[in-house]
Specification:
Number of strands: 11
Distance between the termini: 40 Å
Shape: globular
Largest sheet: 7 strands, mixed
Length: 115
């Protein structure tokens, strides 16, 4: 059973930065995509960014130019570097790994942007 563990969330001021990491507990074979989602209170979960096995990335319009998704060479970790944070980035952030047509989710990490 693969388990994903996120870390790096917390409190940041507007304009500040945070780096989220997601580590898999075991090798994920047949990995095709790693993603970050977020869910703000009262809102649906939304895709923030994802990266394919080949390294192709996509971003939500709201985070383009501010967030950067990356993964390590062993493909067991996916990171989200967040810069120029805004209050509207406040949410629980979840990582997801898609492998062999299965989705694995982390438990989420809280990001709060407030002065």
């Amino acid at each position: 059973q693969v388990r994903l563990v996120e870390s790096g969330g917390g409190l940041a001021q507007p304009g500040g930065s945070l780096r989220l990491s997601c580590v898999a507990s075991a090798n994920i074979f047949g990995f095709s995509r790693m993603s970050w989602y977020r869910q703000a209170p009262g809102k649906q979960r939304e895709l923030v960014a994802d990266i394919t096995y080949r390294g192709l990335t996509t971003y939500a319009d709201s985070v383009k130019g501010r967030f950067t998704i990356s993964r390590d060479g062993a493909k067991k970790m996916v990171n989200l570097q967040m810069q120029n944070l805004k209050p509207e980035d406040t949410a629980i952030y979840y990582c997801k790994v898609t492998a062999s047509a299965l989705d694995y989710w982390g438990q989420g990490t809280q990001v709060t942007v407030s002065s």
